[in-house]
Design a protein that fits this description.
The protein is α/β, with parallel strands linked by helices and about 450 residues long. It is built from 19 helices and 11 strands. It has a 5-stranded parallel sheet, with helices on both faces.
Length: about 450
């Protein structure tokens, strides 16, 4: 720890020094030297972010690195296309003050995009920062979804022999369900529990105005993931990037780009180009699974329904809230509050709990802008929770469980999803004797007679 802490100031000083030197080259219009120095500064910034994930001002260093990459991209294009439409030399009005944001040259109209090195830097910057404060117990319910995810991720990590042969474990998972039910939070917990890189891919990471660059970005994404193997690729709002949106007919160019990106992603998800010994898991989340084309749905081997909470889960969430916040609620009052949370998503239930806790500070309010600092807030009552539920209009009350027309999540889950029952791997205590010490006299009949019953985890 001391060695890392001593290396940190040196690395930051080196990155800032390179940035200042690049700006000096930029002001002097020494374009080749400025381009090289900006790229070096960006590399150091991204190395600091990856090596010190708990570093303060993490967002500031990430912004500085992206600005360096953006400016280096413009300088490289200026080197390649140093004239404007009139055939005259382009004006280089870039300075350290307006770095990466203004230009009077025709660089922005060029058909060139980022090079391979810059694409890799952008992809590596999408790696999620692990937060050890999260755990699987933070999500109440969704037992089958958590069990499926844990099996897909942890089994290949602990037993690499399962990747051999013609029947490897599934390497692609689709999470679907109403917004606010915990799809993204599941990945946040997964990233905090596994010691492998998780790349969080959004529209801003893949989409580009340059022709063909989005497909190059997908190819670079999988190449970087293979280099960091084993790794996880998480694509949030999957339908927005690779879905067949109804608005695509109004913009043929956007539709054509989406189709090309779909084909490129499908090619890599099929695993035909995956190098030997490399393992990458692709996880996607969507609120509109019916907008995804069947050819893309087929690539996801596990399709898991992240459903709204049941009565049992709501009661468990209420009990956990009462364990953390002082209250005077009885078990019967908690049970009577459960129907008031019907059609609420976990995110909306959490908002109700936040509003309820704020209500307990009303008696120590001195004025609209000040509160008493020495008195404790009052206890939470069932009246507080009842009032706060009326303050929030649940999304599912207005739209029900329906998505588009008569299609809803439950019927889509019946047609394409995995069952909500999960059969876990048996524990060592329940394994039959022939697993513990295989013998030559084991026959098929003895195996059938000694097989043990399976336990099911039901939502």
């Amino acid at each position: 720890m001391k060695d890392q802490s001593s290396q940190l100031p040196k690395a930051i000083f080196q990155a800032l020094e390179l940035t200042v030197q690049a700006e000096i080259y930029d002001q002097r219009q020494q374009i080749p030297q400025a381009y090289t120095t900006y790229v070096q500064a960006a590399k150091v910034f991204f190395a600091i972010i990856q090596q010190f994930p708990d570093l303060a001002y993490h967002k500031m260093w990430n912004t500085k690195a992206r600005l360096c990459i953006y400016r280096a991209k413009q300088l490289r294009l200026l080197l390649q296309h140093g004239t404007n439409k009139n055939g005259k030399k382009a004006k280089k009005t870039f300075t350290a003050d307006n770095i990466g944001f203004s230009t009077t040259s025709s660089v922005s109209n060029s058909k060139e995009g980022l090079n391979q090195q810059e694409l890799e830097v952008i992809i590596r910057a999408c790696q999620l920062k692990p937060d050890r404060n999260y755990s699987w117990d933070d999500i109440i319910g969704l037992e089958a979804v958590k069990a499926h995810l844990q099996e897909v991720v942890y089994l290949p990590l602990d037993r690499t022999d399962v990747l051999e042969g013609s029947y490897p474990p599934p390497s692609s998972v689709l999470l679907f369900g109403p917004p606010g039910c915990g799809k993204t939070h599941l990945i946040r917990i997964l990233a905090s529990q596994v010691d492998i890189p998780v790349f969080n891919i959004t529209a801003s990471s893949l989409l580009s105005k340059w022709h063909g660059e989005s497909e190059k970005m997908i190819r670079t994404l999988f190449q970087v993931a293979w280099e960091e193997s084993p790794s996880i690729i998480f694509i949030d709002e999957f339908d927005g990037l690779f879905g067949s949106s109804s608005n695509s007919s109004n913009n043929p160019q956007s539709s054509e780009m989406s189709i090309k990106m779909q084909k490129e992603l499908q090619r890599y998800m099929d695993g035909l180009e995956t190098p030997s010994g490399k393992h990458t898991i692709t996880i996607a989340a969507t609120n509109f699974p019916w907008c995804i084309q069947p050819a893309q749905i087929r690539r996801f081997k596990r399709r898991l329904y992240v459903a709204p909470p049941s009565d049992r889960v709501i009661l468990h969430m209420l009990k956990r809230f009462c364990d953390e916040v002082p209250n005077e609620l009885s078990p019967s009052e908690l049970q009577s509050l459960v129907p008031k949370f019907h059609m609420f998503t976990p995110s909306e239930i959490h908002s109700v709990f936040e509003a309820t806790r704020m209500r307990t500070y009303d008696l120590i309010k001195l004025s609209p802008t000040s509160y008493h600092k020495h008195f404790s807030p009052r206890l939470v009552t069932s009246f507080d929770l009842d009032k706060c539920t009326s303050m929030i209009n649940p999304l599912l009350h207005h739209h029900g469980m329906r998505g588009v027309g008569t299609i809803d999540f439950r019927s889509w889950n019946d047609d394409y999803g995995c069952p909500s029952i999960y059969y876990p791997i048996q524990s060592w205590e329940k394994l039959p004797w022939y697993y513990e010490s295989p013998r030559k006299d084991v026959t098929e009949g003895s195996i059938d007679s000694s097989s043990s019953s399976k336990e099911a985890v039901v939502e």
